[in-house]
């Protein structure tokens, strides 16, 4: 672990390799697990705002889940998350012709209809950020459904922090990322 500004960063994001391999996993991270994507307060407002534009991209089950639960949920622990369809798929998940899970929010973004790509927790994955009072912890989240992504990342020699570069810049800023690159270069020596 090392400190970078107000973050404590796991060396795993520099030392481990990762490149999403959607042809292998079919977007399992969006349909497996027992919780929705973590959200921050500002993102809950954004989801409310963009829902009318994203709605035409959604599956009927997603629309029903959102209209029943809301554009986001608050768990018993007070955590904010995307709603799920029957406790499984994220309500914002859609599928392409090959059965690969995609994000309806990101589809609307790719079509130029909204200016917000998707929740930062999704954009950052496999990095998870835990915010505390004085700092944020930046960690690699290892999940067996991403084993193919680890294999592909190793094959292509792409460390996690490079794979999620744009998301890290979106979350922490360009200067923070440049400092991270300096640390990564120092660790290689």
UniProtKB/TrEMBL annotation:
Pfam families: DUF3109. It comes from the Bacteria. Belongs to the Rv0495c family. This is DUF3109 family protein. It comes from Aquimarina litoralis.
């Amino acid at each position: 672990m090392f400190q970078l500004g107000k973050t404590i960063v796991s060396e795993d994001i520099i030392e481990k390799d990762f490149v999403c391999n959607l042809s292998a996993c079919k977007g399992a991270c969006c349909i497996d697990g027992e919780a929705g994507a973590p959200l921050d307060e500002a993102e809950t407002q954004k989801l409310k705002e963009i829902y009318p534009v994203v709605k035409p991209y959604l599956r009927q089950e997603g629309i029903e889940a959102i209209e029943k639960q809301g554009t986001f949920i608050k768990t018993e622990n007070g955590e904010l998350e995307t709603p799920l369809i029957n406790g499984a798929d994220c309500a914002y998940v859609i599928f392409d012709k090959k059965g690969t899970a995609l994000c309806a929010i990101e589809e609307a973004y790719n079509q130029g209809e909204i200016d917000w790509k998707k929740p930062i927790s999704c954009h950052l994955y496999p990095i998870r950020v835990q915010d505390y009072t004085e700092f944020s912890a930046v960690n690699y989240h290892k999940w067996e459904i991403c084993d193919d992504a680890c294999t592909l990342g190793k094959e292509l020699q792409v460390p996690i922090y490079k794979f999620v570069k744009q998301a890290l810049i979106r979350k922490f800023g360009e200067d923070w990322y440049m400092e991270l690159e300096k640390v990564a270069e120092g660790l290689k020596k």
